[in-house]
Amino acid sequence: MRVAVVGAGVVGLSTTAELLRRGVDVVCHERAGGPMAQRSAGSSRIFRLAHPTPDLVRLAQAAREGFGRWEQASHTAMIAPGGCVISGDQVPGWAAAMAAAGAAHEIVDGRSGRLRLPARRPPSAALVDPSGGVIDVDAVRAHLIEVTSGAVVQDHVYALEDTPTGATVWSSAGTARFDAVLLTAGAGTSPLAAQVGIYTPPALAHHVRFTFPVDPAVSWQCWIDKPSAGLATYQHRSGPGRWAVGGSIDPGQVAWEAGRDAATAASRDAVLRYAREHLAVEPRVVDTLYCVTTPGLADGFEFRRHGAILAVSGENLFKFAPLLGEVLAEACTGGSTPAVADLARR
After folding, report:
1. Whole-angstrom Cα distance, residue 3 to residue 82?
2. Which residues contact 109 (CB under 8 A, 6 or more apart)?
3. Where a domain ends, among 293, 311, 333?
4. How does DSSP classify residue 279?
5. Residue 112 neighbours by CB under 8 Å, 6+ apart
6. CATH code at 104?
7. What is the pTM of this model?
8. Tell me: the pLDDT tens digits for 63-82?
9. Which domain holds residue 155?
10. Same domain, 162 and 191
11. Distance of CA 23 to the CA centre of its chain
């Protein structure tokens, strides 16, 4: 069997690695920039079991087991523990979802010693996810590049055709036939999927994360804060003496038509102002990480198929990567279309 994976982000590489493990002939096409250079770029991500639904909590638990297998295979730690704190109006619902999935958690008062946050004024209450931590993106990247060596090619896929016996892929390298095609191309998924009648959310937006210098000795927890008023943020350690902050600003300021430069400037102003007023960090930006997002998807993912071609779309997929690799490899070889609810009951 021959499978084409379009997109060498973390999900595309995870699937390629699992297909190779199963003995499948697979080619992973990456347009430019090298593996994990677009939405999977950067050095760190938050890992958490905390999610708004029991199904997503269960899937995060399965993904954590997958990271454990990667850690064992590479002899490298990939998730630094420390916990993740959730604050805001969603705390009761997220706590209920964790309870339903049997995941350890605790709701604590903002003055509790269980909270280690950079906040000048801590939240009144918070959900503590003790299994949360920081994903070492560099370690994940190194492992996946090693195990997919030889299967990844720099090649721009620009057209697809579903056929009765598989699919045809047109790329800068020429034309090739495959038994199955998986689209994990981030912002490039929607236009390719549309060629074969698969709908994926087409809207795009700009998102920028900023890093501030802090005392290297601090051991703050990852923090997702969604207050009823003010800037919603996610925050975590991104290296020794470095604290990363991303904020959800006015959608109009980061809409695709606003342009990257304007969206970056607006995001920087909002996050820098927030850091000055609310965080115990040095209010000086030392690093900027830009990516393209699909507004409205939040956590989670969707799968859609037309014949031999399967497309996956979603946001915040990095923490699910080991699980998605296994699920998508099985779908490619078996011709199935996964469903989140079914996966959570496996």
Report:
1. 39
2. 124, 125
3. 293
4. B
5. none
6. 3.30.9.10
7. 0.95
8. 999 999 999 999 999 999 99
9. 2-40+140-201+298-344
10. yes
11. 27
